[in-house]
C-alpha cells in the first residue's frame, strides 16, 4: 500500500491540471486488449498488481508504483492474480 491518501492524490492531480480522479477496481487475471484513451492519465497502484504493455515494453506494476500515459497511446493491461485497485487522474 501507499502512504499517500486519496485526498492528497486528488489535490495534487487537480493542481497539475487533471480534471477528475477515479478509483478503479480490476478483477483477478483480467486482460484488456490493446486500446487507447481520449485523455491523459496519471495512475497510482493502491493494491494488487498488473502489467502495462506499450509497444514492446512491459512494465510490471505493484502497490505504490505510479505512471503517466498520454492520450491516444496504444496500450494493453493484464491484472495480476489478486486483481488491482488503482487511482486514476484524467485530463480531458
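^ Assign residues to that structure.
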Amino acid at each position: 500500500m501507499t502512504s499517500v491518501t486519496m485526498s492528497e492524490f486528488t489535490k495534487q492531480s487537480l493542481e497539475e491540471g487533471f480534471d477528475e480522479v477515479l478509483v478503479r477496481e480490476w478483477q483477478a487475471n483480467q486482460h484488456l486488449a490493446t486500446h487507447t484513451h481520449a485523455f491523459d492519465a496519471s495512475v497510482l497502484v493502491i493494491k494488487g498488481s498488473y502489467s502495462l504493455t506499450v509497444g514492446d515494453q512491459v512494465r510490471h506494476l505493484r502497490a505504490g508504483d505510479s505512471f503517466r500515459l498520454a492520450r491516444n497511446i496504444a496500450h494493453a493491461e493484464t491484472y495480476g492474480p489478486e486483481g488491482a485497485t488503482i487511482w486514476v487522474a484524467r485530463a480531458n
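Strands lie at 20-26, 31-35, 40-54, 57-62, 66-69, 75-91.
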